[in-house]
Amino acid sequence: MTATSSAPPVQPFVANAGAAPFSFGRHVLPHLLAVLALLLLVVIYFSPIFFDHKTLVQSDVLQFQGSAREIMQWKEQHGHEPLWTNTMFGGMPAYLILTHFPGDLSQYLVKLFTLGLPTAAGNIFCALVCAYALFVALGMRWWMAIGGAIALGFSSYNLIILEAGHNTKSFALAYAPLVIGGVLVAFRRNRWLGAALLALGLAMNVRSNHLQITFYLLILLAVFFVVEFIGALREKRLGAFVSTSALLGVAALVAVGISFGRLYTTATYSKYSIRGKSELTTAAPTAPGQAPATPTQETGSGLDRDYAFGWSYGVGETLTLLVPDFYGGASTHALDKSSATATALRGLGVGEAQLDQYLQSLPLYWGAQPFTSGPVYIGAVVVFLFILGLFVVERRLAVWLLVASVLGMMLAWGKNFEAFNYFVFDYFPGYNKFRAVAMALVIPQLAMPVLALLAAWRMVGSPAETLVGPTLLPGGGTRQTALMRAVYATGGLLAFALLVALVADPTTASDAQLAKQGFPVSAIVADRSAMARGDVFRSLFFVVAAAAALYFFLRGKLGARTAGLALSALLLIDLWGVDKRYVNSTDFKENVSQEHFQPTPADLQIQQDKGIYRVLNLGNPFNDGRTSYFHFSIGGYHGAKLRRYQDVIDRQLSGPNGSKKLDMLNTRYLIPREPNQPVQRNPGALGNAWLIREVKTVQNPDQEMAALTTLDPATTAVVDAGKFPDVKAGAIDPGAGAISLTSYEPEKLTYAANLTNPAVAVFSEIYYADGWNAYLDGKPAPYFRANYLLRAMQLPAGQHTVEFRFEPKEYAIGNTISLISSILLVLLIGAAGWLGWKQRGTMPQAVGAGLGAGR
User: Mean per-residue pLDDT for 599-605?
Assistant: First the structure.
C-alpha cells in the first residue's frame, strides 16, 4: 500500500535498528521544550499563586490542617511524628492522617514530578508530565503527545477535586497514565521497559494513598488483561502473554511493597473502622418518620449501602462527558446579566449591585447527586476522537478501552442502576469499602483520552491510507471514510443531547422552597435549559473543528505536525474554557489558613485551661476539623472513624442520657452553635481516669450498647464478658484511692495511682488494642475494654505508675518491607532499563500506528 497524504513515516520514541543515531537536538530537546510548554500552561492557569501570592481555597486541606495540627506540632518540637493523635474523635491512629515512613524512598521522587511547585499547580503539572510520558512511550511525536497530556491533565474533574482539596486523589490520578503506559509498552513494544514504567508509576500511585482511585485503575487494567488473554488464546500466544504478565506482576508487587507500611497499617485499622464489620446485630434507632436501617446494612462488612451510594451519577447525566453544563454545572453556579434569571430579577426590582451578588451563586444543578462542585467533562474533542478510535485503532485496544469506559459509567450510576451496582457492591471483593461511587467516572476519564489520542495518531502518524489490521467496527475503507463515520456518530449523539435539552424538565425538589423565598424559579429553570442547549452547540463547534483539522490533513492541505498541533490547541481551548468555569481567579485568596484558624473568643477562653480534656463543638461536630486545630475534640473530620465510636455517636450521644457519655469521654467544654453565646463548662466531666464502685458484665456487644443507655459511668462500668472473661462482675470498694494523669504525650500516657484497696480504673481514652500496651510499674500488664469504648484496668493496692504506650508492630514491620521494596525498585528499574535498551532494535513500531492483524 502506498501513502496518499503528507504523513511522515512512524518514528518510535526509542529508535529501531537502522534508525538515525542518537541526537540531543532530535531525541531530547523537543521533549524538554514540550515539558516547558506544559509548565508555562500551569503557571498561566495558576497565575494568582505565582504572581499574587494567593492560595487556592481547598476546604478539605483546611480540614486536614486542623486534623493534623497535633502531629505536625509534635514533630516540630520532638523531631518525629507520633503514631497516635488525641485531637479527633477522642483519639485515633495518626497514620490515618499524616505519617511518613522512612523506608519509603519514593518520597524523594515527588519533587521530581512536581518540580516543587506549590499545591494545586504541582498536582496539575504532575498530571501533565505523566500523561505526556505515556504518549511518548507509545511512540508518539511531541506535537501529538502534548495534546494527550492536555486531554488527561486538564480534564475538568482534575481541577474540581483540587478546589475541594482532594490532593491525594489528584496525585493518584496524575500517576495513573504511567501505569497504563507501562502495561501497553510491555505488551506492544518492550516488556522490560514496560515493567520499569509500570513499577515507577504504580509505586507513586499507591504512595498517593487514595486506594479508591487505585482500585478503579486496577479495574481498568483488569479489563485489558481479560481482552489480551482472549486474544493471546485465539492467536496461540499464551506463553508470551503469561511471561509478560508475570514480569508485570513482579514489578507491581515491588511497587506496592514500597507503600507496604502505609497499606499494612491502614488495612489493620480498617477492620476497626466504619469500613470494617460491626459487632452489633441490631439496627440503630432512627428519628420519627424515618425508615429503620436493616441489620444487614448496618452490621455487614464494609460501608452502609445508602452511605456508599449517596453520590451516584445520573444515567442521563453521563452526557456531561460530552456537554459540560448539560445538567446545570455546579450546585451553585454563576449566570451573566443577559440571562432569563437576570431579567426576571430586574423585574422584581433588584438593583444592579445586588443583581451581581445574586447571579454569582444560583442553584442551577438539577442532576441526581445531592450536590456537586461541577460536572465530569472529558471534552468534546476527546469524545469525538474516542468514537473515531472505534473505527481506526487495533481491535483489542479499542475493545479494552470501550468496555472499561462503559463499565466505569455503569459503576458511577450507583443506585440509579441498582440491578448491576448493588450486586457488585455486595459481592465484588473490596468494593464495599468505598463511597461516592460517582468517582468511578475516573475510569472513562483515563480510558477515553488514550483511545482518542491513539486514533489521532493513527490518522496523522501512519503512512498507510488504508486501515491496517482488524478494528472494532467493521467496514474497512480509508481513514477518510472512518473520519466521516465518526462525524456522523458524534453528530447523532449531539443531536440526541439537543433533543433531550429541548424536552427535559430541569426542575428540582428544592425549587418550591426557592419560590417561597421569592426567587424567579421559572426563569432559573429556563436558564438551566438554555445552558444545556448552549453547551450542545459549543461541543458541536469543537467536534467540527477537530474533524476539519483531520479532513484537511487527509486532503493534503495540512502537514501532520500542523494537524497534530491544531488538535492539541483545540483540546486545550475546549478543556481550559470549562475548567475556568469552576476554578478561576475568584477561588484564590490570601492568608487562607491564617483566616480559617483565627481563634475565636470561645477558643481563647477554653485555652486558658491548661489541663488535658476534650471539647465538643455543637456546630456540625462530626464533620469539623477546625476544632481539632485548637483542642482535643470529641468530633473531627475523617472518612474512616472507628466503628465503635460511630456506634456511640449514632446510638448514645444524641439519646436522653447522652450527657453521661460526654462525661466519660472527659468532655469539659461545649462550644455553642451560636458564636456569640458563652462557652459551656460541663461539671460532670469525669477526668482522665477515675475509680469505679461496680462492674456489670454482659454477654455480647448488643447488650453492652444497650446497657450504656442507663449507665452512670462515674460509678459503674459495663464489660462484655464474652470478650473479657477474666473480668468479674460485682461491687468494688476503692477506699480512699485516687488516680490521675501525670504526663501526656500523644502516644504515651502516664498515670499515678495511690490505692488503699485493689481497684478498677476507667480511662477516658479510646480502646484500641492493636497497638496500645499497658504497663504497671514498668512491666507489661493486662487491660480491658469498658463501656463499649474506653480502656479499663484492674490495679492492686499501693502506689503505682500506670503507662499506656502506643507501639503498633505493623508500623515497624511495614517500614522495613517498604525499605526493602524501595531498594528492589531501584534495581528493577535499572535492570529493566538496561535490558530494554539492549532489545531496542527488536521493538515493534508505535502502538497507535497499526500493528497488523497479529498485534
Answer: 92
